[in-house]
Amino acid sequence: MNGNGAEKMNFYFIGVTTGKSSIMKVFPLWMKELQRPVVVLLGIDHKIHDDPQAYRATVARIKNDPLSLGALVTTHKMDLYAAAKDMFGYFDPYAEMTDEISSISKLDGRLEGHAKDPITAGLAMDPIVGKDYFDRTGGQVLLFGAGGSAISTMLHLMNKTEKSDRPRRVIIVNRSQGRLDHLRDMVQKRTTDIEVEYLLSSDPVFNDRIMERLPSGSVVINATGMGKDTPGSPVTSNGIFPENGIAWEFNYRGELDFMHQALRQVESRKLRVEDGWVYFLHGWTQVIAQVLHHPIEGELFDRLAQVAEVVRGK
């Protein structure tokens, strides 16, 4: 019970190091802004690629707890879907297309899974690159990682209706063949004019050579989790970023090695560097909106972003 006598409702956060996330401080402020102070955030940490039974136990906990509203899933989106998909009563089209879920919610007595990242990726990426970016610059996209965030970014680029907003070429580099194959299968099931190259590599020196061959204006994205969930960066400190390009670090916390490597080349390569803070904001507000069945957009999103900025500043 809270101070007003209302029973607390649980909103779960499934990740790796949930206690270190800024959302632990931001969430109660957001619930106050949304006039839902009885909703509390509880973290559940899993090992990366955890035992399927561990994921099933977590989903069962959420499903069977009458005080549980749902959950946001990070890092484990594909593994949790694979382990527990039979426990859900509904998946949205993106979840079925990508074989992942980032949102667990309840509606009319059924457990629902949504993949919000394709929406989140677009909301975060479009302001960074701007209109007609790839037509204006001739840049390509180098995407390190083939997990949920990488899949969502690829889907967003493929779904752009204007040719000028789509890169001519995307290179995807990942450390495991299985994730690469999964992403390739998803792309091949859809129609696109984007040339996609899939490379298996865990060697940062090899990755440097791929990055160095990019044309001016290209966008290099770290969607691996390295620098947050695991140490290091997909490239070395000797790697050369594309001139007049963009380096986008999907993480906003942790060692952020990739981002710091890029920052050292801002002047010499005329490079723009972005972190994952706006992605973080959209990712959370999209899932909160789904779980609470309360739209968050426009002025309300701006207010919540302003509240979160205070916490980030500290």
What's the short story on this structure?
The chain has 314 residues and is an alpha/beta fold.
Question: What are the key terms here?
Answer:
314 residues, alpha/beta, six-stranded parallel β-sheet, 12 helices, 41% helix, 19% strand
Low-confidence stretches: none
Percent of residues in β-strands:
15-25%
Report the strand count: 12
Overall SS class = alpha/beta
Summarize model confidence as the mean pLDDT: 94
Helix and strand pattern: EHEHEHEHEEHHEHEHEHEEHEHH
Task: Give me the side-by-side strand order of the main sheet.
Answer: 2-1-3-5-6-4
Gyration radius from CA atoms, angstroms: 19 Å
Overall geometry comes to globular
Distance between the termini: 30 Å
Please give the share of residues in helix. Answer: 40-55%
Instruction: Compute the number of helices.
Output: 12
Biggest sheet architecture: 6 strands, mixed
Write a structural description.
The chain is α/β, with parallel strands linked by helices and about 325 residues long. It has helices at about 25-35, 50-65, 75-85, 95-100, 115-130, 135, 150-160, 175-190, 205-210, 255-265, 275-290, 300-314, and strands at about 10-15, 40-45, 70-75, 90, 105, 110-115, 140-145, 170-175, 195-200, 220, 245-250, 270-275. The strands form 2 sheets. Strands 2-1-3-5-6-4 form a 6-stranded mixed sheet, with helices on both faces. Strands 9-8-7-10-11-12 form a 6-stranded parallel sheet, with helices on both faces. Helix 2 crosses helix 3 (about 75-85). The longest helix has 16 residues, at about 275-290. The mean pLDDT is about 95.
